[in-house]
Design goal:
Strand content: 5-15%
CATH topology: Arc Repressor Mutant, subunit A
CATH superfamily: Winged helix-like DNA-binding domain superfamily/Winged helix DNA-binding domain
Order of helices and strands: HHHEHHEEHHH
Number of helices: 8
Structural class: mainly alpha
Low-confidence stretches: none
Number of strands: 3
CATH architecture: Orthogonal Bundle
Helix content: 55-70%
Largest sheet: 3 strands, antiparallel
CATH class: Mainly Alpha
Mean pLDDT: 90
Length: about 140
């Protein structure tokens, strides 16, 4: 039996959003495979901005893990020539990652592919798509 709180519109909205996300969870691994990447490698490329080297620690934080846990991911991206790893100029204890030209190019293709909406979004009427955008923007603020 659900409590009054569990029957609230906010709980229902969250359950529906969560169900939708779970239904779509296979989307990222499938897109990653198209580019010969793992989902975590895709996430790293998404987080790195062209022309803005990032410390491994900050990248690890964005991934929700310890810096030591992303070493293997970084190794594989570096081996493919998509990123470079070097010591930070101001603190030589810190390693920074930067996209290579090939990485910038692949990242752009990857982000374009990931931005393609699933069919359920495309089937919504334009006014509902706009309403959904407004709601999600507010939620992210």
């Amino acid at each position: 039996m659900r409590t009054r709180r569990e029957n609230s519109p906010s709980c229902e909205a969250w359950r529906l959003l969560f169900d939708l996300l779970m239904e779509q969870r296979s989307r990222v691994p499938a897109i990653a495979a198209e580019f010969g990447l793992s989902p975590m490698q895709c996430h790293v490329l998404r987080l790195l901005e062209p022309g803005e080297p990032a410390p491994m620690g900050r990248l690890a934080s964005g991934l929700g893990c310890d810096a030591s846990n992303i070493t293997g991911i970084v190794d594989r991206l570096e081996a493919r020539g998509l990123i470079s790893r070097r010591l930070a100029e101001r603190d030589r204890r810190v390693r920074v990652l930067a996209l290579t030209d090939s990485g910038v190019e692949l990242r752009a293709k990857l982000l374009e592919r990931m931005a393609e909406p699933p069919q359920w979004v495309e089937r919504l009427p334009a006014d509902e798509q706009q309403a959904l955008c407004r709601i999600l923007r507010r939620a992210l603020d």
